[in-house]
Write a structure and sequence with these properties.
Rossmann fold, 37% strand, 11 strands, seven-stranded mixed sheet, 232 residues
Length: 232
C-alpha cells in the first residue's frame, strides 16, 4: 500500500472549529506525482480534488429534476465542484452558494485553491457567507427552482453537531417554502438515511433515494442522493 505524504497549505479557526486545507501526494510515485488538494473541517474529511464525481453527481441529479432551473441555491461551497457543474448548465441564470466558513470562501477567491478564482468568475454566481438555515429562513418565498444541500457528509456524518437541524422538519419546511411550484430539494448523504427519507416524505409528500457508487482513495463507497419535489 502506498504511503501518503501531507503538506498543510492553509489553516483557519472559526467559532465552529478548525478548517484545514492540505496537499496529499503518493510518496512512492516520486516528486512528479500530481498533488491532491484535501479539505478537512473539524477533523472531518470533507472532499478532495481527486474524487469529485459525487459532487458532480449531486448537481446532475438535481438539475434533472427541474425543467427550468433558472434560480438555484447550493448549501456548501467546499472546493467548488458542485457549483461548477451547476454553472455548466446554460438553463441556470442565477446561482447563490451559501457557505458558513469565511476561510473557505477566501481560499477559493484568492487562489489558495488554484481553480477557485476561475470557478467564481462566472457572473451568474454569488457567494453568501452564512449558515444555510439562516439563508433559508430569510429567503423570499418561492425564490428558487432548485436547492442542493452538501453541507455535511450526510445526517449520519455531521461536520458540526448543530447541522443536525438541517435534516429535520422545521428546516425542510423552510426550504420547501423557498421553492417555486415544481421545484426540487436535493440532499447528498454518505450513507443511507431512512430517517431523512421519512422527514422529506413528511414535508414534501414523496422522496426518491438514489444510490450512487464512487471510488474514494482506492475504496469503493456507496453514497446516496435524496430528492423531493414541491407540487406544481
Amino acid at each position: 500500500m502506498s504511503e501518503l505524504e501531507y503538506t498543510e497549505i492553509s489553516r483557519a479557526e472559526s467559532p465552529r472549529g478548525e478548517i484545514v486545507l492540505r496537499e496529499r501526494r503518493d510518496a512512492d510515485a516520486g516528486e512528479n506525482a500530481p498533488a491532491v488538494l484535501e479539505l478537512r473541517v473539524n477533523g472531518v474529511f470533507v472532499m478532495d480534488t481527486l474524487e469529485t464525481s459525487s459532487e458532480k453527481g449531486l448537481a446532475s441529479a438535481a438539475l434533472e429534476q427541474v425543467e427550468q432551473p433558472r434560480d438555484v441555491v447550493i448549501g456548501g461551497l467546499g472546493l467548488g465542484f458542485t457549483m461548477h457543474e451547476v454553472l455548466a448548465d446554460k438553463r441556470v441564470e442565477r446561482l447563490v452558494v451559501v457557505e458558513v466558513e469565511d476561510a473557505i470562501v477566501q481560499w477559493m477567491r484568492d487562489g489558495t485553491v488554484p481553480h477557485g478564482p476561475a470557478y467564481l468568475a462566472d457572473e451568474r454566481v454569488s457567494v453568501m457567507t452564512a449558515d444555510i438555515r439562516v439563508a433559508m429562513a430569510e429567503a423570499t418565498p418561492e425564490a428558487y427552482d432548485l436547492i442542493l444541500l452538501d453541507v455535511d457528509n450526510g445526517p449520519g456524518f455531521l461536520v458540526y453537531d448543530d447541522n443536525e437541524a438541517v435534516y429535520q422538519r422545521e428546516f425542510l419546511e423552510q426550504a420547501r417554502a423557498t421553492l417555486r411550484p415544481g421545484g426540487a430539494l436535493v440532499i447528498w448523504s454518505a450513507a443511507e438515511s431512512p430517517q431523512l427519507r421519512a422527514e422529506l416524505e413528511s414535508t414534501f409528500g414523496s422522496c426518491a433515494a438514489v444510490p450512487y457508487d464512487v471510488t474514494l482513495q482506492s475504496r469503493d463507497e456507496h453514497y446516496w442522493i435524496y430528492l423531493s419535489r414541491k407540487d406544481a
